[in-house]
Amino acid sequence: MQAVSRRIEPDIDRACLRQRVFQPVCDIVDEAAPGEIFKDGAGTQGELLYQSMPISRRTLLKAIVATGATAVTGGGAYSYVYARDALELTRATLPVTGLPEGLSGLRVGLITDVHRSRWVTQTTIGRAVRLLMSERPDLIVLGGDYITDFDRTYIEPAAEALAPLSAPFGVFGVLGNHDDDRDMPGALAARGVEMLKDARTRLSIRNESLELAGIRFWTRRASDIAKVVEDARGPVILLAHDPRRLVEAAALNVSLVLSGHTHGGQVVLPLLGAVAARRFPLLSGQARYGSTNIFVSRGIGTVYVPLRINCPPEVALLTLEPTSSAGIV
Fold this sequence. Notes:
Blueprint: E1 2-5, H1 14-20, H2 22-29, E2 36-39, E3 47-50, H3 57-66, H4 70-73, H5 77-81, E4 88-96, E5 107-111, H6 122-133, E6 139-142, H7 155-162, E7 171-173, H8 183-189, E8 194-195, E9 199-205, E10 208-215, H9 222-229, E11 236-240, H10 246-251, E12 256-259, E13 268-269, E14 273-274, E15 285-289, E16 292-296, E17 314-322
Parallel strand pairs: 4-17, 5-6, 6-7, 7-8, 10-11, 11-12, 12-16
Antiparallel strand pairs: 1-4, 2-3, 5-17, 9-10, 13-14, 15-16
Helix pairs in contact: 6-7, 7-8
């Protein structure tokens, strides 16, 4: 996987940042979560590791001090805090079980976790849209969380910022935990996005069939997901905002899961890593569970605190290959 990074000038108020950083980050750390994570590396695809490193509030604060708190709140803030605007394009090749050879090389663009808000502007989203469109993907998928905390103020601006997206085989989207079930999908649908709310559509591409399914964030039971993917003809790509749906997807023989939600951890501290690592099977990048592959994007926006530390935002261009072509057996 390779990435191209571009940096822009900061637009955040430093004084406001000082007031908003520490307590919200500590609140995130205090959430209980499972300890199972993936190891993503050469020769270890799909290997599960178990992380037993509880990170307490005291440990987190000590780590911030030890590694230089001024990197967050002082003169060194640019390289850390403003990484939230250092947008990257991530290119990855994904093996897809059962993918016909005729669909080898199909390119899917992924944008997720836009979080249009006071901190994530039209300019920021527009830059991501233009970056992805410059790659001319065959298909575009949107992974949810277009706004933050159901804030209706930003529903129309979020949808309008994404309106320029287009692709030969369509633009599709699912809902995240910050989106309502009516107005946000309605605004996107009005701009040409086909919303998959616990639904599946069959795409005809290069005389081959590809099943594209999407579930809402709140659809979690295996029986409910099964209703969405049952009787599929050929490989299924599942759009699921939350990567924790990987377990259910694997049990249902879904070929590929595309997710967001994690923001890549958003706050990735030296020595300690991501404070949210214990909560998800994979924070970012790709891995495999059984015969099911998954890609998790770091997304574009931020939530709770308007910063990213060692975790820049991204849009992803994913090239699909049959498992044999990708060298996986």
